[in-house]
Amino acid sequence: MFKTIRNAFKIKDIRNKLVFTFIALIIVRLGCQLPVPEINREYFSQWVTSQTSLGFFDTLTGGSFTRMSILALNITPYITASIIMQLLTIAIPKLEELQKDGEDGRKKIAEFTRYLNVALSLVESTAMAIGFGRSGLLIGGITFTNVVIVVATLTAGSTFLMWLGERITEKGVGNGISIILLVNIVAKLPSDFTNLFRTFVTGAASVINGILGAIVILLVTIFVIAFVVLLQSAQRKIPVQYAKKVQGRKMVGGQSSHIPLKVNTAGVIPVIFAGSIMQFPIVVSSFFGVQPARTHLWPKILYLLNQNNWCDFTSWGEFKYTLGLLIYIVLIIFFAYFYTSITFNPLEVSNNMKKQGGFVPGIRPGKPTTEYLTKVVNNVILIGAIGLTLVSVVPVFFAGAFNAQVSFGGTSIIIIVGVVLETMKQIESQMLVRHYKGFLND
């Protein structure tokens, strides 16, 4: 990886793209420090700290939500808008046609995504402004001017990040939105690891315990990262043979190819969906003053859904709330199948292969091929879902069993590894194109 980056800086075009990306990311981190007017930041920071359910959201925003900066919403509305548009593309035939129309259709869908991003930002910022005002977080209380200032600032910040992300994609390296998300998550890692070492190494009862704590932290971190790299890069290659046919005076076809089916076909989406559904009731209830607790029915349900209360082995009274972890696992597996089913259509793939004269060796074209692809996809999804579950559960287990509280989890690690791998592949491909261009010019 470091060798690739070093070689990339030797090529002027790629070096300029890397510098542009770096400057854009500096702007992002500076924006995360600028406060929103009319909000009591000190009181707000204390309020967020008490809301344990908002930890992952704060991680995705790079800590800007805790500081209530102008980029507090960050790119979360854009991510939500992109997911909604993906789902609507499957549900609405007109959008599906646009997606198949090539570059023009994709540009139109990207335009709809931008509009949806602004709409979601307006809704979220309005709800936040009113909710903060009722909680006493606005200076001067709820007034029309205060609400408008907060809504305009947060919406403008989210829209600016969307624009900057698209500029990074166009003039920099990698996917701009993913790069911004990566930097936000990485920005929280130093404080998390500092807290871990402070708790289990420097704060250990003895030197031996401190050394063992450091070894365990390093081994678990390396294992999770290595496992995620394997999960993200693993593929199931389905062989495809194309029949020979005559076109004009030439004999074409007869080549062998394959369909690359990623083991983790749904990426990080199942974990995000599952976590969002588990945390949604807690976040909504917090605005009405209802917190997770072990008294009364609804607070108990919220306590069950809160990840911070899972895998606590101190007593049966605490351990029984680990039932929420089982619900979380079921949701991850369900969304892995659900999301893959709407993004990969075995019937459509089978029909396209048949039109192009392709077939899977040993499988007849048509319905048998569709059934075979469906069976393979289901098996691959199960393996990927189990891998996702393992990565997601490891941080939760250590947080509950050993009180190793960190803001990042399996989702964050998957995002970091996935974005880094994709960005490095893009840099390598640009270097390869540049190399061939020079060879041809010579």
From TrEMBL:
One of its GO terms (cellular component) is plasma membrane. The keyword Transmembrane applies. It holds the Pfam family SecY. Its main location: membrane. It is a multi-pass membrane protein. SUPFAM superfamilies: Preprotein translocase SecY subunit. GO terms for biological process: intracellular protein transmembrane transport; protein targeting; protein transport by the Sec complex. Belongs to the SecY/SEC61-alpha family. The central subunit of the protein translocation channel SecYEG. Consists of two halves formed by TMs 1-5 and 6-10. These two domains form a lateral gate at the front which open onto the bilayer between TMs 2 and 7, and are clamped together by SecE at the back. The channel is closed by both a pore ring composed of hydrophobic SecY resides and a short helix (helix 2A) on the extracellular side of the membrane which forms a plug. The plug probably moves laterally to allow the channel to open. The ring and the pore may move independently. This is Protein translocase subunit SecY. The lineage of its organism: Bacteria, Bacillati, Bacillota, Clostridia, Lachnospirales.
